[in-house]
Write a structure and sequence with these properties.
Radius of gyration: 23 Å
Number of helices: 9
Shape: globular
Largest sheet: 7 strands, mixed
CATH class of the largest domain: Alpha Beta
Structural class: alpha/beta
CATH superfamily of the largest domain: Type I PLP-dependent aspartate aminotransferase-like (Major domain)
Helix content: 25-40%
Number of strands: 14
Strand content: 15-25%
Bound molecules: pyridoxal-5'-phosphate
Order of helices and strands: HEHHEHEHEHEHEEEEEHEEEEH
Distance between the termini: 36 Å
Length: about 450
Amino acid sequence: MINDFSRNGSSSALSWHEPQSEAAVMAEVSDQLKRNISLAVPRSDDTTVKGKKIISFPFQDPLPFATRVLAKAFQTNANNIGTRLHNADGSEGGFEGSQELERRLLSMIAEILGAKSEEVDGFMTLGATASNLDGMQIGREKGRTPDKQCKNTTAIFGSFLTHYSIDRAAKTLNIAPNFDDTENDDGTGYYKLGTDGRGRVLVEQIEEKIERIAAEHPIVTHFIVVGNAGTTMLGSVDDIPQIDALITKLKARFPEKHFHFHVDAAFGAFVAPFLRDVPDIGFRNKNVGTVGVDIYKTLPGHVGSGALFVRRDLANVTRSSSEYVPIGGSISSVGSKPGAMAVACYAILRLLGKKGLQENAQRLMSIASFARDQLSELNLHLFPNDLPIIGVSGRFPVELLDYYIVHESTFPLNGRQPLREDSGFAHIWNVVAMPHIEKNILHLTADYRWVLHGRNSLWNID
Ligand SMILES: Cc1ncc(COP(=O)(O)O)c(C=O)c1O
């Protein structure tokens, strides 16, 4: 080891004044990387972090082919700054190859989202958090004339299951400056509405709230509705066509107001469009203005790849220009971004084709139904799932926390659905149905029985 930097040590212990040899640096890096979990390698049964069984990760090991493409593309380390679907000449010069592949990738995803390439613009982001931020900014800015006082005149509507990145965006954009109480007295802010028992936002609540705010608070001129496709904890998909119809109605009723409909398809973009029972989440809904996606969650790609799609007429709302991003400027809050990631994502979609995407979606759904079958034998309350995420009501057993990596969430009730418990809080943990969980679910159900009935664990399922 090059220093006594402990495995969990803080960087303050690191002595790094002297240059190190490549071998020494590689040894240190390799040592640390051994601590990372590879989802593809079967879990061992020890109880170190590495041996914990994964239940709730919304991503999977990248295809080795995609990693090879990524490594190859990184050799030229292209910068795709400013690259978007419709600015063939507008990116940093010198990296035309990776920029062209980003445009091809975006046009394939646009098609999955129900748009013809010419109807939408789009750009890659580092993930759906960034896509959601840009979607909220477009909703806040559209139709706005420059206002030197920068007053907040925007209200956002989502459900209490909406991802926290919308909270962050609302705070960053000064729409809801307070994380704890997001509704402002003047009608602006972020309204987290209730859902039905499946976790789909109650569309009548969106209507009531917007009608009331529009009537009582003339200061609110911009209304952004966030549709979930699907929610992080339950995989529930809001009724996007019904919300779309509502927005048509509201636009007619309040023609002086601006309405923006953003769909957060971080999890659902590559699954929902291939499932017969899930209504359309994309641009066939004519009021949908922006759709944020993650490319790595349900596809075997690399963390750090997402995109935002924008209707053409909104694409320039957030445009900024600079001398070195020549034509058209950038419409994204991400500046420099790795062209290599675009290339690797493109390679995955080309390798799979639309047929492979369809098969992937069906495979994940069948893993979800396998997990449901196993879990339902434990008499747990399982939420119905639109996408391959199964929400389980209650707390994950403390006895098993050392053995599993599980995401849990607590929701304050405040009269909201979908779950009521005496404590005033709803507890939910979830199973994200990915290829690596099939065996882990068998372990989990065996262990759960042991917790319930004191029976022996069946750790030897292999
Ligand atoms: C619904 C939803 N939106 C947004 C995000 C944020 O995605 P990322 O972590 O890629 O920024 C997530 C992440 O889990 C999510 O589930």
